[in-house]
Each structure stands twice: as structure tokens, then as C-alpha cells.
Amino acid sequence: MVDTVVLYGIKTCSTVKKAMNWLEERGIAVRYHDVRKDGLTASRLEGWAKIVGWEKLLNRSSLTFRRLDDAAKQDLTETRAVALMLEHPTLVRRPVLEKGETVMVGFKPEIYEELFSQKA
Q: Which InterPro entries does the UniProt record give (predicted)?
């Protein structure tokens, strides 16, 4: 059985484009999920947070985060961070790649290479 590969991001993100190009160049079938258009569920965000940690998942350097009022940014917990990411999907660090049970945040060619060179 082949793991389904899903890439979550937004079309205008240069890092998402790099990841998509990397996957396409290697003939890796991927389903793209636009977090802005298609949204995210609380259960998916909570699952990612459990795997990679909410601190890694939340993009504090994003324009969306910087535009939040100070009260929303203070005393963040996993629950509050997930709620913010649910309300503002562009707060999720991109791209998020799911391959079976594996979840990766961001794009580094060497890490993708390692993940996709593993035998099932």
C-alpha cells in the first residue's frame, strides 16, 4: 500500500512552490490542499500540533501574526494557538506535508529526500 502524500499550503507561498516543484520533478503523486480556500479542521491542526508541536506549527514571523493585536499573541498555549490557526489558516507555517503517519513542516530538500528514499 502506498502512502497518500498531501501538501498543505497557499498558492502564493514561494516555499510551497519549491516543495511542489521538488515533488513533481521526482514524479511523486501529491494532493494539494489550499489552507486558505479549503480551510483546516480543528482535529487536523490538533493532530499536527501533537506530532510536531504547536510552536513549530505556528508561524510567528508571518504578516498575519504580526497584524494580530498584542492580546491575541500573549500567553499562547496549544489550545489558543490552534484556535488562532483555525481562524487564520495563514498562521500555519508552510508547507505542511503528510505522508502516511508522518507530518513535516517547512521544506528542506535534504529532509524530503530522506523521507521519500525510505522503503515502505
A: Arsenate_reductase-like, Thioredoxin-like_sf, Tscrpt_reg_Spx/MgsR
Does the model's pTM come out above 0.70?
A: yes
Enter the C-alpha cell of residue 105: 513542516
What are the two backbone dihedrals, phi and then psi, of residue 44, each rounded to the nearest 5 degrees? -65, -45
How far is it, in rounded angstroms, from Cα 75 to Cα 32?
Answer: 33
- Which phi and psi (to 5°) does residue 33 adopt? -125, 115
Question: How far apart, in whole angstroms, are the C-alpha atoms of residue 9 and residue 89?
Answer: 9
> Which amino acids are annotated catalytic?
13
**Residue 118 reports pLDDT greater than 60:** yes
Is omega for the bond preceding 95 within 30 degrees of 0, making it cis?
yes
Asked if residue 49 lies in contact with residue 82, where contact means CB atoms within 8 angstroms, the answer is: yes
First vs last Cα of the chain: how many Å apart? 8
Q: Are 120 and 2 in contact, with CB atoms under 8 Å apart?
A: yes
